Structure formats: C-alpha cells, structure tokens
Structure prediction request, 288 residues.
Amino acid sequence: MSKQKHQAILIVDFGSQVTQLIARRLRELNVYCEIHPYSSAADVLKNLQPKGIILSGGPASVLDKDAPAIAPELLDEGVPILGICYGQQALCVALGGKVEAGHVREFGRADVSPQKSCSLFDGVWETGGKYQVWMSHGDKCSKLPEGFEIVAASPGAPMAIIANEERRIWATQFHPEVYHTPDGIKLFENFVKKTCGCTGDWTMATYRQQAIEKIREQVGSNRVICGLSGGVDSSVAAVLLHEAIGDQLTCVFVDHGLLRKDEAEQVVEMFSQNYNISLIHAQHQDQF
Prediction:
C-alpha cells in the first residue's frame, strides 16, 4: 500500500489538559496533525515533514529546574511556529527573552486589544478593538526576544500576542483552542492555511479508508481476535477491523457482571446481529 502523504502540522505537547483541543480545531479545518511529547517531537521531523509547528500550553513553569524546553531542532526547522501559553514562555526563554512569575494567576475570560497589524489575526481582529479570549497562566514574558514585538495586549497580559513576522513565529498568552476564545478557530485557520500553506486536504473519511488499507496490508490472510468491551474505543476498532477483514475477525466480549442493566445484551445484539460480527460472549460474572 502506498501511503498518501498529507500536509501536516506538528503539535508539541507540554502537558496541557487541552492539547487534544488544538488537534480537534485543526481537524475541523481539514488539516492533518499529530501530537508528540516535547521530549521526542524532534524525532518525527524527518518523517512528518510538518508545514508548521504548534507548541501547546502546560502545567509547568519555565522557571522551574529541568522545566520542559523546546528542542533546538524545532526552532531550526524553518517552518512557521505558534506558541500557546507555556509554549509562548518556552519560546521566549529559548530565543533569549525573559519570563517572570506573576504575582497573581490569571484564569478566565479576558479582553485582548490588538495594537499592530499581524498576520495571525489578519481579517479577524482590528487594531484598537477588544476581543474575548481565555487566559490560564501564572508566569508571563517580561522581556521580548530580539526581533519580536508586542502586537496585542490585555490588562493581565501585556504581551498577549508577540510576533516575529520575519521568522514567522507567533505566540499567544491565551488559549485559542478553547471554546471561550470565540475567534480561536479563525486564528488557527490564518496560521495553518494562510501562513503554513495547508490547503485542507485531510478528512476523517480519508483517514478511515487509509486505516482500512493499512489493516488489510498488516493482517493479510491471518485471523484477528479483538477484545470488545462495548465502549467507544473497542467498538470503533471492532467495526473498522470488520470493514477491513470481514470474517477473519472474531470479537470476544467478557461479561463480568458489573455492567449497566441490559448493557451486555445490547452489546451482543449490536455486534452479532446489527454488524454481523463473529462474537464470543464469555459470561464470567461469578469470577468477578
């Protein structure tokens, strides 16, 4: 099978609770992306060949000893970079700026005011306006790296957005990925499509077909056993496997007696009758 190569964005995860929301926003824009931990993100550059990099937020402080840092290879890749919250602070430190601990943590809605034009919010926000965003931070940048400028500020974050247009690096103190930043999806669209040049060539239907082809190639003529719990993950895996290899699949559903009322019967009916999947219903309530 020849794997179709999609335009990709690399999301570097610094441990944020909402990193998955970044990926969701990009997929809503039909842009393929992969999340990799900060400690190994540089290792995927050659294979992924990302058109841009997004640095997530995170719970740590860049002021901590052994704080998570940006791999130099990411900065040397030469592609556009967008840092978010901790990602902004990590960028600031890596590029020669300074970060200081805030006297009070800022958490909640805030109004950002653009001060200069910027490609990140071009066509979305106007200079001098006020726009709602979501803040969640303790530390803040106190000295800009060389070549950067402040393009938007808020009362609690004087460097709400910083930019180096020449190097194509932008960073926000707020979280554009969350619901409470209403224009966040538009900011991502500007970054991944206008700046990174992604055309939006990825869809879930495409992913599904590629997954089916990959399963067929890997399984060949062999048989597969799938442990089925009835939950979302194993159910999706079972249906996808069945579409790929049909009768070569046997699902095993272990009834441990701790399910909701009638749930076991619903699982058996759904998969053996509705999907016509070979299913072994192992009843072991007494053992559990």
